[in-house]
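Fig. S4 source data, part A: sequence.
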Amino acid sequence: VLHYILVSVLLSVCGYAKAQLSCSYAFYQNKDTGCYPFPVLATANDDPTVTERKWYLSTCTGTAVYTSPNGINKTFSYTPAAAGCYCLRMWAKNSNGDTCSFIRCNIIESDVPKINGTISTQEICLDGSTTLNLNNTASCGTIDNTIVVWGCGPSSDISGNPSSINHTFSATNCAASCYDITIVAKNSCGCIATKTYPGMVCLVTPPHADFAADVTNAQCQANLTSHFTADDAGPNMTYSWYINGNPVPAQSGPSRFFTNTFANSPNCYDIKLVVQHPSGCLDSITKPGYICATA
């Protein structure tokens, strides 16, 4: 017995004692929380006696998510399929058959905000306004900041989670074209979401009203028939005509063209044209005494 004890002491002193298996790991850059999706990255402690390691990722409620294949597996890398709370357990075994296990929980993958935007009027005139309606959800905490990049001109940077933003597209900063609108939202968990709506708004040149008639005056005839043509102000425009302040009946307009027969009394007639875009911008011109029919 004394001989056995002496041999054991000598082995211990000389470093031949049975190695103690160590189970531990560290997260990459100590990162165990972040915004989804981020990979869970871990590195096991340096223990040359380990012959096998396995990693087990589960939700904080115990649902298995991923198990690594057999092997030394000194490192672990996996990106969960959804935001949530996770646990990572490492199991190790050495050549002596000793095993150990180490687990860490509350690995938090915070969800990013969900962005949903619609616009009240897609096509507007330069210097016109439209309203961006927002139905954003925080997913984690609350939305504490919202940014809208309008495609031209200055962006809107608003604290909180507005339900709508009214914006004017100034002709100083914008041209007649279609623009993408990008919405950025940040929640109180520090997560940011970005969503771009391609060609969400189209700007057009405001209408310019002008017109001409083939015959503007006549003498010594009972009636004068004139054919009117408005300058083409662009697509989606409506043309409304007025004679001495009275609107031309709908069956004759509103269009770029109309024909009217004028009696020679009250001799001269004022002609007015209003050109309007569906978004509301318009232009008008009145030509006093433009048509004259005299007996």
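Fig. S4 source data, part B ends here. Helices lie at 2-13.
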